[in-house]
Amino acid sequence: MLGHRPLNVEDYLFILKRHWWVIAIPTVVLPIVAVVATLYIPAQYVSQSSVQIGQQKVSNDLVKSIVTEDISSRLASI
């Protein structure tokens, strides 16, 4: 037993030698479990979007439009 003295590097190495499996088993087993789980879990990602298109509502006298194309050509480019 180590007693009631401060631990040094050799003590920590001795502890790691005795309990190496506490680090090694989770390091090997957990990635394997994670990979197997991802193979059996079905993909559930679904994405949707909607684009709302409308004419400019502010008068050209107040705000100069920076877009020179009409809506149909802009929609076709999207």
Task: Summarize this structure briefly.
The protein contains 3 helices and no strands. By secondary structure, it is mostly helical.
List keywords for this structure.
78 residues; mainly alpha
Topology record:
Elements: H1 9-18, H2 20-40, H3 71-77
Q: If you had to describe this structure to a student in words, what would you say it looks like?
A:
With 78 residues, the protein is mainly alpha-helical. The protein has a domain at 9-40. It is built from three helices and no strands. It has helices spanning 9-18, 20-40, 71-77. It starts with 8 loop residues before the first helix and ends with a helix. The mean pLDDT is 84.
Whole-Å distance between the termini?
73 Å
Strand tally = 0
Could you spell the SSE succession in H and E letters? HHH
How does the major sheet shape up?
A: none
List segments where confidence is low: pLDDT < 50 over at least 5 consecutive residues: none
Strand content: under 5%
Percent helix, as a range, is: 40-55%
How many alpha or pi helices?
3
Based on secondary structure, the structural category is mainly alpha
CA radius of gyration is 32 Å
Mean pLDDT across the residues is: 84
